[in-house]
Amino acid sequence: MPSSLLWAVDVFGRVYSLSTAAQQWDQCKEAQLEFKRVTAVQQCCWAIACDHQIYLNVHASDVPIRYKEETYENQRWNPVDGFSDRLLPSDRWQWSDMTGLKHQPLDSFQLPSENWEWEADWYVDENFGGEPTEKGGWTYAIDFPAAYTKDKKWNSCVRRRRWIRYRRYKACNTWAKVPSEQAGLPDPFNDISCGGWEISDEPRGQMSLWAVSLQGKVWFREDIHHLNPEGSSWVEVQVPGEVVQISCGAGDLVWAVLWEGQLLVREGIGRDCPKGSSWVVVESPSPEVGAIHVAVGVNVVWAVTKDHKVWFRRGINSHNPCGSGWIGMVGEMVMINVGLSDQVWGIGAEDRAIYMRQGVTANELSGKAWKALPSLRDSDRAHSSASATAPLLHGQADAPKPLIPKVTSDSFISELVSDRDRREGAVSTPIPEEDQGSEQDDKAPPALVLSHSPSCGPDPQWSNVDLEEAQTHLAVGAASDAAETSSLSSVATYNLGLEEPYGPDEHPLWAWVSGGGCAVDSHSQLSWFNSSAGDPAQTAAWRKQIFEQLSERSKREMDNFRHYEQTVWVKKGTMQWWRDWKPHKWVDVRFALEQYCGTDGSKEGILFIYYTFNEEKKYLHAFINEVTILVPVLSDSKHTFAIYTPERTKQRWPIRLAAESDSDTQCWCPGSLQLALLTMSCCDSRGVQGPPSKQAIWSVTCKGDIFVSEPSPSLEASPYPMFWHQIGGHLRTIECNSLGVVWGIGCDHTAWVYSGGYGESDNQYNANVHFTTDVKSVYIYENQRWNPVTGYTNRGLPTDRYMWSDASGLQECTKANTKPPSPHWTWVSDWTIDYNVSGGTDREGWQYAADFPASYHGSKTLKDFVRRRRWARKCKITTTGPWQEVPPIPLCDVTILPCMAQSKVEQVLLWAISNKGDVLCRLGVTPETPAGTSWLHVGTDQPFKSISIGGAHQVWAIARDGSAFYRGSVSQQNPAGDCWYHIPSPPRQKLKQVSVGRTSVYAVDDNGQSRNLHYLNVYVFTWALACINVNIIVLSLLLQVWIIADKVQGSHSLSCGTVCHRLGVQPMEPKGQSWDYGIGGGWDHITVRGNSLEAPTPHSPLPLRNPEGMNGNVVQS
Amino acid sequence: MQQAMADDKDVLRDVWFGRIPTCFTLYQDEITEREAEPFYLLLPRVSYLPLVTDKVRKHFQKVMKPDDVGEMWFEYEGTPLKWHYPIGLLFDLYASNTTLPWSIFVHFKNFPQQDLLHCPSNSVIEAHFMSSIKEADALKHKGAVVNEMQKKDHKQLWMGLQNDKFDQFWAMNRKLMEYPTEEGGFRYIPFRIYQVTSNRPFIQKLFRPVASDGCPHTLGDLLKEVFPAAIPQNDGQKKYQVMIHGIEPMLETPIQWLSEHLSYPDNFLHISIIPAPSD
């Protein structure tokens, strides 16, 4: 898991961040600013400084935030000048936006704030819908507005071209003041809360920022999204009272606290309305004591009342943002914050320490107990420093200047006190301060009593947030919670005179914490809690001695006796078997796996399956050394898998077995114990040991399982049968080269690098095997038919599809009965409407069509009688595998420079495309450090989707609009190259994926229905159709051309995801001759780019193999 | 720091994968049809005899009449071996400092009722194992951790031991080894001290990992309280060896660390105190 940050402000207004990977707080460097509030999300942190301005700290990323400004230059033809900027009076402006409605000359574009900079000057876009235009980038039409073409025709009367200029957000990793464009904001901000990023779809990265002003008004920052991190303007949101604090969750929850102690819940928040529509009042948890603070997450609401009691709101969900009731929790807090995955953070009322709620899971959102974060500071320095003025918190170079106003978390209340007091007089204070004070004095430690200061009296000024110089003489004995001095707040009147606020043994005193950017959950192993850095135990003599003795013991007792183990072993158990004859069904069987040592020391084994047929005991068996692949098969109730041997492959009938998932013995292990056992046995008998070789062929099945096969030197000549064994983890694509650098990308676009581990997939104590997760969406469709009486309803015709169905309409899929793909997956979200559907949707996600099934479109027309919308629900798998996450940029494609096995390179060229379409070049990738160090962003004019590096550093890429690009001048010394060359696509084809071998270039197009493979003649730059129905193409340096094809004719049916292999590819004939439809069924991705061992003898083209002779099928369930 | 943590995991691995080379010989009184060859096996130290001796039974059954095969039991130099003690403990207690392989006699008759418990099936071992874990957790966390686990978690501990799956076992056992940081250790250390010569099967007392002044207790502190004779006297004469998993940890070793790292899978520190070899 990549590290992320917990943000906090101490009572002196200093901002700190704590990385999940670190063991000490890091103070923000900008010491000249003191902050009173922070609200963090993963990519940035917002804050209110003591100057009441809002500041934004955007975390620097390898991919810069770039915004493309564009404008169109329009021209009309006249017989005198030809094309010129002399337009007709009725025409659009000479410079306009795309629609022509808005006047947009180049010099009208201004940087939105001083935190932006221009990347370069304006230039003309010469790419038109994926095709290169003539120099100048002009596109022609008969008139404005009309269809534009790149070719000038006899009737082309007007032309236009697009100008582009990029601006870049430059204020990263620093606190940048957010411009307040409205000079007349009525009063300063007092509270701020950021969230809402889960309301809309990821690519845009929209966020909500809510703020509360000192007068209790609520403001919403408009238009914050990934490319506009600062947002554009503040909009006031009417509230039925004076708000003191607000909290916005990652989803659609927004709660606020009213001055009077009630709570407000915002309703009507949605994708199209992030501001929501109305407020609902919820009473304070306790009738006598008002609420003072609220914190919301995705599905939770926590509140704190004025007596510091903590409350949890029951029954919150997306349909009921108000919840149903309060539950009192243990602990006394001054504030609470709900972070990612609804994890809860608090600041203790007593000790001002930060607490983390333990045991918060999706099933137990209220968690179990509070756990204080250790003080987490540099202990060595703290202890060794003789002087109390030594820096105690990391990075804290100088102590706060005296006489600077100090702000605390609770100051907003006091501000209100003072504010109201000034306006209405002290009488309006609900509880007399002095009474409360005296009552609590008994409990308060003597050190906390404020020394003769005006603040003890009713003078309202003492508690103003802007403590003036006059107040600095208020020396408080001890820096601690001063809540007892006021009924409403714990005002920070800490000792400002000391240079160093915290003594060597004191904890920092926290005022505010924000976990919105801190990705931890109840399973995280946080290094915060085992801060034994410099623990003398690590070097103690007793420890060393235990290590020595244990290794001596192993030598003594085991080394000379290893041969004892070489005997037969048998594992037995029960399973279920999918019966070979009709009616097919699962029958209970006993199995025995017998393994023995062959005379030559190799391990061999037989699997027996005993069943009863007509009350007669029978068995079937499989020799372990003949097994070509063991494939887990998805099933929502059983752990099933299929065993293939060459013979079984020919029959297209694997042995299908299932371990019951409800049995206690299996559910701990993904893929079941039996499968693990069999896999181990197969690897033993094949002599597969240790990590996969650098030459290994990696593949990913359509289920996301990862398989590896060791190529034989004669792979090209006779690639079958290959033995595939599974590697832990879950991926969507995989890429490798012959130096052992292997990268994969998960369904959730997380990048993973192979860590060199191997072995059992549940091996979390193996240093190279880690927990890996993946998240994907399951989709179902809601279908409706129109009738004249009631309009669209869920009452269809009798012949119609199910009103809740899968994409085909053939299977009924309701929200309730749809399960995750297998028992290994768990739901991590609720059903939500999916607006990202090809064809577009209306505001409610509906797509319309004349009838089922038909082509759907996003807006209703008169001819439409049916409509459907797609619902998505995310599910997550947690497995273990030899993969290390490469944070933080999510990827959609990756490619690694193929090289010959013997070649020595200092740096391995690796390019990738982020899921936003940015092209990235990875720096620092070597065989020793396959993860590399950082991304170098390679600028493009549009988002990209596929990339491939071939021999001699050729980098080819496909843009989202389907056009092909070649990157010039890429070399070992210049890994990012210098510029893009637009290569025309095959006529009328949009390309989808490209792969480059030693010299040849192949690409797959995507026409919606069919996908075809094209071969590029690199001498004349023209494409030729090579094959139809191809999904993925992979080339290696060795003139190997492998594809994953769909609709390949098998013996029983068309199989999808068939691995095929081009025959007859020769240096002089890079197009090859014919296809070998090799390994059938169920593959999603394969990479042969690691295999660079030349075959011993150059082979001649083989005759086309009989498709019946397929091997190593992946089963299609 | 990272390195050190990895090292501690190595200790867990070394402990788990400890094996004792053993030679099983059929006792001479057993009736066979032909001569029984000795059987050699590496016994996992942390396991229990009936869990790993299926092969031994099969080996000897081949040369015996079915009628002559009763419940199998083992004996070392006249001492019947209790199956409910972990194998490593049996070896440390009775056979430390002897030549390897460990030579064990196999019996199929004359079951010593007074010395041994019957072990009709693995479920008996499982029950014994789980009750030890529960007892240990009662000492460590007032039973809170083990009671919070689900049945499948308990099963995972047992299956991990039965199938010799280190990772499966430790994925769960790690929870049993947690403790509140501020307390510096468990409530009490689950330990048992065994002696060959004693009449009592073992010594077990309540012992806290941290002294009242906050100092961590060491193995020496424990022995001082429970078995002072095991501490070498001032004259330097070492009368006893204090063995855990075939090694002699230094008396300075913190008892909490030992409990976390050198406990058997049943979560007890099984400490053997044996007379020091005279040579």
Write a brief caption for the model.
The complex is a heterodimer of chains A (1117) and B (279). With 1117 residues, chain A is mainly beta. Chain A is 6% helix and 36% strand.
Report on this model:
The complex is a heterodimer of chains A (1117) and B (279). Helices cover 6% and strands 36% of the residues of chain A. Chain A contains 6 helices and 72 strands. In chain A, the strands form 16 sheets. In chain A, strands 7, 8, 9, 10, 11, 14 and 15 form a 7-stranded antiparallel β-sheet that branches. In chain A, strands 25-26-27-28-29-30-31 form a 7-stranded antiparallel β-sheet, with no helix packed on it. Chain A is globular and about 85 Å long. By secondary structure, chain B is α/β, with parallel strands linked by helices. In chain B, strands 2-1-5-3-4 form a 5-stranded mixed β-sheet, with helices on one face. Chain B has 3 domains: 15-107, Ubiquitin-like (UB roll) (Roll); 131-176, Orthogonal Bundle (Serum Albumin, Chain A, Domain 1); 179-279, Ubiquitin-like (UB roll) (Roll). Chain A binds chain B through residues 374, 529-530, 532-533, 535, 537-538, 540-543, 545-547, 549-554, 556-558, 560-562, 564-565, 567, 569, 664-665, 667-669, 673, 760, 762-767, and chain B through 1, 4, 6-7, 9-15, 18-21, 40-42, 55, 100-101, 151-152, 155-156, 159, 163, 165-168, 170-171, 181, 245-250, 252-254, 257, 261-262.
